[in-house]
Design a protein that fits this description.
With about 160 residues, the chain is an all-alpha fold. It folds into two domains: about 40 residues; about 110 residues, no CATH class. About 70% of the residues lie in helices and about 0% in strands. It is built from seven helices and no strands.
Length: about 160
């Protein structure tokens, strides 16, 4: 097959194959980081002070609507645990001085996966409604909201 190609075409194929290899390596680094994040995700919930609060409030949170006054009351009552949690988990906008604006794409991927899982823990959970509420809460750009909505539709 290579014998049918000109020297320019062979050179182009070499550069194309090199590009494909670099993209593959970049994707593998991304995947490796996401796999590590998956293994370490929310491990602080298994230690104090978080475990005590999450033991008290996880069932209560499941029975209320995300973003409701009741939900916000529980969230406020959990403040010591959440302050501890956000300080140690970079996939939360609260971890950062400028919220989502300071996050990287890996943080956003983990955050999205966290929101998706959290929406399934609420009896009336809905990832699209969660994205809508979080868009206001975290001052997300319309473009990022649309990307999250598009991604959510892939997981329904």
């Amino acid at each position: 097959m290579l014998e049918n190609l000109t020297k320019e075409e062979q050179a182009t194929n070499y550069h194309t194959m090199r590009h494909i290899e670099i993209v593959r390596n970049n994707l593998n680094m991304f995947i490796t980081d996401l796999l590590k994040r998956g293994e370490l995700h929310d491990q602080t919930k298994l230690e104090q002070p978080e475990v005590a609060y999450f033991s008290l409030y996880t069932d209560k949170l499941a029975t209320c609507t995300y973003g409701s006054a009741e939900y916000e009351g529980y969230r406020k009552a959990m403040d010591p645990a959440l302050t501890h949690h956000y300080a140690r988990n970079r996939h939360h906008p609260e971890h950062w001085k400028n919220g989502i604006d300071d996050m990287n794409l890996l943080d956003l991927c983990e955050m999205f996966c966290d929101w998706l899982a959290a929406s399934k823990r609420h009896n009336d959970g809905n990832i699209l409604k969660s994205i809508e509420k979080n868009a206001d809460r975290f001052k997300m750009s319309p473009q990022l909201v649309k990307i999250f909505e598009n991604t959510a539709k892939e997981f329904q």
